[in-house]
Design goal:
Rossmann fold, D-amino Acid Aminotransferase, Chain A, domain 1, alpha+beta, about 425 residues, 21 strands, Dna Ligase, domain 1
Length: about 425
């Protein structure tokens, strides 16, 4: 099969490596100059994906285009390519709006019958500041659009909202009078939990997955919000939660021509399920977290999606724990912190072939035949472990991470701890998980 990856920083590099190892042809678009070294020597780079459309078309039903992100116009481009007869997996224009326009997403969630937290949309920081002063409470501040990083959002700590007002004032000063879009959402206490599934344009493939992300930079949920530092996921016990949440979106996704993976992040508590936001793309490290649990290969899964040939795919029972191994300048970028790349990537002598299958390369590449760090962010790689329990999967993931030897590498040491200690039991008590 032939696969053309469309993005700018090679988010799905590890997935492309799996496809190449299975004998498929892969080309990936890399437009970000600071990502020129990412998977260099491992995945074929192209600068203009449009110039490769004939290459994809020549493969007929074996040609697939994979969109990595919800960057500007990517969804509209996908819709147009589908109209032109191409097989495209990624999302749709409507999916882009679901992820990037948070107020609109909350409206859609309410329309399909889900409980939503009160949310107010603004483009004027002064108006938002006045709103919070007049209605003091604990709020969550989230910025709209693909041009904001996760680290710019803020989960309020104070009952009168003063910290949210301070973050807004700093952002207003940064933008120096330019308008930007954001939402202020009422804070809800509970357990953060996600649900995700693959959609083939008509229906969801089963099973769905459930996951628990760890977004703060440091252990104990301290420090900056990052894209992600580690995740626990499983396909087990997921049917009830999927039916309560994401499954209700199926008619709207079908109407929008959506084809790809979609995830809904929520807060759950005794009052119910409170959806927060969508990820309308594969997500990093989401796809790497799920891969060890998927017996169906990526190529088979993608063929199944574009051909609408099956409703289920093969999975392994149990849990996957993913650890994001980062290097500086993460959680910032080399635009803000110009730290050099090219740190050597070594592995312990005890690394086995089975271990390599659970290492998912991110921003690394070959230089003079040696593996080194590369890229814009410092998303160096992901280590995964699987097992019948969260604890067993966690222990395997950390044993593998210890075999990765990179100067200045860092990762959280508490991925899965809260889920093991309290949250898994609480979710069972709330009746949100399928019976054991």
């Amino acid at each position: 099969m032939r696969f053309l990856g469309v993005g700018n920083v090679l988010d799905l590099g590890s997935l492309y490596l799996r496809l190449i190892a299975e004998g498929h042809e892969v080309k990936a678009c890399v437009t970000e100059p600071l990502s020129a070294g990412t998977l260099a020597g491992l995945v074929s780079h192209v600068r203009d994906w449009r110039s490769e459309l004939d290459w994809v078309r020549q493969a007929g039903p074996d040609g697939i285009i994979l969109f990595e992100s919800v960057a500007e116009e990517s969804g509209a481009q996908q819709d147009g390519l589908r109209r032109d007869g191409f097989q495209v997996i990624g999302g749709s224009a409507w999916g882009d709006r679901l992820e990037n326009d948070r107020a609109y997403a909350q409206k859609v969630l309410a329309e399909i019958g889900l409980s939503t937290a009160p949310t107010w949309e603004f483009t004027d920081p002064v108006a938002a500041d006045r709103f919070i002063r007049e209605r003091p409470a604990r709020y969550v501040l989230k910025f709209n659009g693909p041009n904001f990083y996760a680290s710019e959002n803020h989960v309020g700590l104070l009952a009168d909202g003063r910290d949210v007002r301070a973050v807004l004032a700093a952002k207003a000063a940064e933008y120096a009078g330019q308008a930007f879009s954001f939402v202020v959402m009422q804070h809800i206490d509970g357990i953060e939990m996600g649900v995700g599934a693959y959609f083939n344009g008509e229906r969801f493939l089963r099973p769905a997955c459930i996951d628990w992300e760890h977004k703060r930079f440091f252990a104990g949920d301290m420090g900056e919000l990052t894209g992600e530092m580690g995740t626990v996921a499983t396909f087990d016990h997921s049917d009830r939660f999927f039916q309560l949440t994401l499954e209700k979106l199926q008619p709207r996704l079908r109407e929008a021509g959506y084809v790809g993976y979609i995830n809904l992040n929520t807060i759950v508590n005794a009052e119910g399920v409170w959806p927060l936001e969508f990820t309308c793309r594969f997500g990093y490290p989401g796809f790497a977290t799920l891969e060890p649990l998927q017996q169906t290969s990526w190529a088979e899964l993608f063929r199944m999606m574009v051909g609408r040939s099956d409703e289920t795919f093969r999975i392994r029972r149990g849990f996957s724990v993913a650890l994001v191994l980062t290097t500086p300048p993460f959680p910032y970028t080399r635009r803000e912190v110009p730290i050099p790349i090219g740190l050597p990537v070594f592995f312990a002598d005890t690394l086995e072939d089975a271990d390599r299958r659970n290492l998912h390369y991110g921003e690394v590449g070959l230089r003079n035949g040696e593996l080194v760090t590369s890229g814009l962010y410092g998303w160096t790689m992901v280590a995964t472990g699987t097992g019948p329990t969260i604890l067993q999967a966690k222990d395997k993931a950390y044993a593998l991470a210890a075999k990765v030897l990179i100067p200045s590498v860092r990762y959280r040491l508490d991925i899965g701890d809260r889920l093991i200690e309290t949250d898994w039991r609480r979710l069972g008590d709330l009746g949100l998980l399928d019976p054991e």
